[in-house]
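Researcher: Next sequence.
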Amino acid sequence: MVVVGAGPIGLAIVAELVGRDQDVIVLERGEAVAAAVRQWGHVRLFSPWSELTSPAAVSLLEVTGWAPPDPHTYPTGADWVRDYLDPLAVVLGERVRTGQRVVGVARADRDLLVDSGREDQPFVVHVQGTDGTATRVLARAVVDCSGTWGSPNPLGAEGYPAAGESAAAGRILYGMPDPERDLARFAGAATAVVGSGASALTALISLTSSPLHTPDSRVVWVVRRGTVGNAFGGGELDELPARGALGTRVRAAVDAGLIEVVTGFRVAEVRERAADLALVATDGRAIEGVDQIVGATGFRPETSFLSEVRLDLDPRLQAPTLLAPGIDPNVHSCGSVQPHGFDVLAQPEGDLYLAGMKSYGRAPSFLAMTGYEQVRSIAAALAGDLDAARAVELTLPDTGVCGGAGLFDEDASAGGCCGAPAGPQELTLTRPAR
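Model: Next structure:
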């Protein structure tokens, strides 16, 4: 069996399959496991350690003498890698193959069109190494845990890059500023943060805190919706305390005048000038004098390497059709998502599954503990234990918003506190010159 992506969920299903004596390898395009997590390693997660380790993985690790971290503390991404994911990769050994990019999945000797004998053929996974070498790997089953981190949504309101966005790419960060890595880029700069999810809140905290915040700093929060609304999250009522604290911190920064809030702004153009940038909305308004832009508008799945296998994805969320209604962010938070397993994640191709963040498509409400239960069920199904595969049980924390990560500089081992409602700070806008 082949797993695509050696992130937290990909490594978890390898551990599950190893525990069931199944032959499995995981292919990771990065030079090390959890390559995406390493890119936001400076950010603290919403979830405590008790929700960030897979039971199957823990069983393998404990044999080596590994000691679990304090279950009540909140790790950064770097902590997660160092204290859990890297040791797990060592235990899994040669089953983990890094520097291997999956560029295609197909049935042997069959393209997408051919029906005859399709279900009797193994999968062929087409792989490109970092040295350019192409190989073909045969597999009985494929589980895609490749995530969505490498496919950020553009700034443009219609889902395509705004005019000028690609040309200004050198001044746009799709992610969350790192106070150490990005000091020269953002300290004292005028920065527009586009987005209203938790990644946007995390970016706003970083930009209004030392060392990135200086007396010369200017931070503009650009929100598509008409009001900030529930973008601040669940506060003290949030069952993920670190997530509640995140919104409380941003609300306080808005109250203090450190953040200018612009609502109802849908980006149509990024206008690059010699000294700065301007964001232009579809209604003609403009935010001028911007040095840098942080794009925190979410992510989407990349499915081009699955173009020769048969998929059944929701046309809006790009998630498995049976799963999509239960994760629709217009209806659900992460806590109201129902437990689900192999049967809703399976694709028409047979023995092909989407799992982890990849299974949520464009929905932002994924939690690691959801993925661990997904792959436990999938592994049981692949091993022929359908009773275990169908016995899906999971209790998730409720309220608030879900996608993203927590505070930079606090363990957040206690619950968040409430803050008084804060209105947006007014910002004078100009219409661009014609």
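Model: Confidence is low (pLDDT under 50) at residues 399-434. The domain at 2-150+299-390 is CATH 3.50.50.60 (FAD/NAD(P)-binding domain).
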